Amino acid sequence: MSAAVPFLHVASLSAEMAGGVRKKISVSPHPLWRKIHTLWQNKHLVLFNTEYTLLVVSILWFLEIGINCWVIQKVPYTEIDWKAYMDEVEGVINGTYDYTQLKGGTGPLVYPAGFVYIFTALYYLTNHGANIRLGQYIFAGFYLITLLLVFRVYYRTKKVPPYVFFFVCCASYRIHSIFVLRLFNDPVAMMLLFAAVNLFLDGHWTLGCGVYSLAVSVKMNVLLFAPGLLFLLVWEFGLIRTIPKLALCATIQLLLGLPFLLENPVGYVNRAFDLGRLFMFEWTVNWRFLPEWLFLNRYFHLLLLTAHLLTLLLFALRRWKRPGESIIEFLKDPSKRKLASQGSTVDQKVLILFTSNFVGMCFSRSLHYQFYVWYFHTLPYLLWSGGVRKLAHLLRVLILGLIELSWNTYPSTSSSSSALHVCHFIILLCLWLAPPLHSSHVEKQKHSGVKDKHH
């Protein structure tokens, strides 16, 4: 018995040690399983916590691949401008460089030279424009690239809750229609614009300005971002060092338009950059409640332009510029300013650019259905940047829904266009009531991890 006791004692210790090993193994699962377990425990927060933005947008982006393929296969294509685009670039291919002689089925060519080059490439890729189905898949690719660029902006800012991204992509019939059922040039311009915005966020200002100018060369609406971009360039570099970047933008426009400028410079500028072009009342989305004579009135257009410029000036002076800093001081090189100058944060860049564009949309002489893409992807950011804390999530989503409904009402009605203006006014008011960008110490870029590089 005395010999058996030590044996039993050793066996007991061995069993306890084995049990301890099993316990250690059980509390140290694979890191992937720990993440899945944490995600499952916090599943009710996934749609509301901005930390899960990357996960949600990744799932939505892959869903969009299937959605776009389904739309292309199941929803009939509607011809509006594609054949006209092909006729216009075919004229250039055949040797016509006089812009006044280039036209399509819907009228004369009214887009800058970058449009001609891009749609000439599409002309050849789609068998002279005949293979429309291939063109739809190409535009689906443009859509997916645009979403990646947009999602990257929202991931960098982490301001908008993840559930909102469902409304940014999957829920918008009109945006899918503009991209893959109509093949407008507006999506191409906006894809390049969001590429430029991402470059600005990374501090690549020179390259960003080049891509921005390419976007302008596809469609002139991108100029609505120009006031905000000019403000940011002066903020980052001062007036003198901003001039070379503006010169780069102008040089790109000059080089792209050179063949047409050599043939008929006045004709090219008047057609490609016609700021006074009249819009047809039957297509307006935002001014349907007005009588047609007032819609076409030049004094009404002048009033809208004045309101546009005045609103931009007020935002620049009261919401964007640092309080106590004079305009002369602001124009100086950042290193020579009296107030310590810090580069703009990611949030500030996005807010200024998106607000600049949105103000232009609010006071536009006319908005046509394809113009929705000009600001659609920026609306959630603007809504969640407003200064009205009582504007609850539900009300913000309601505003997004009313805007979507207004753009999907065809033909537009007095009610739909009035609702659109009311929503625009609410967003603009919330942006105005938000604290000035410099009301507190400039925040560090918490999420970018990339320092601005001045080129």
Distance between the termini: 87 Å
State the secondary-structure class: mainly alpha
Estimate percent helicity.
55-70%
Strand tally: 2
**Count of helical segments?**
19
Strand content: under 5%
> Biggest β-sheet, characterized?
2 strands, antiparallel
The overall number of domains is: 1
Biggest sheet: strand arrangement: 1-2
Shape: globular
Order of helices and strands: HHHHEEHHHHHHHHHHHHHHH
Oligomer: single chain
Q: Supply Rg.
A: 27 Å
Mean pLDDT across the residues is 88
Low-confidence blocks of residues: 1-18, 20-26, 440-455
Main location: endoplasmic reticulum
Pfam families: ALG3
Pathway: Protein modification; protein glycosylation
Organism: Nothobranchius furzeri
What report would you give on this structure?
The structure is a single chain. α9 (186-201) packs antiparallel against α10 and α11 runs antiparallel to α12. Residues 1-18, 20-26 and 440-455 have low confidence and may be disordered. The protein is globular. The chain has 455 residues and is mainly alpha-helical. It is built from 19 helices and 2 strands. It has one domain (46-435). Helices cover 62% and strands 1% of the residues. The protein has a two-stranded antiparallel sheet with strand order 1-2. It has helices spanning 4-26, 31-41, 53-74, 82-93, 113-125, 132-157, 165-168, 173-181, 186-201, 205-216, 226-263, 265-272, 292-295, 298-320, 327-331, 346-362, 379-383, 393-408, 414-433; strands at residues 103-104, 107-108. This is Dol-P-Man:Man(5)GlcNAc(2)-PP-Dol alpha-1,3-mannosyltransferase. Pathway: Protein modification; protein glycosylation.
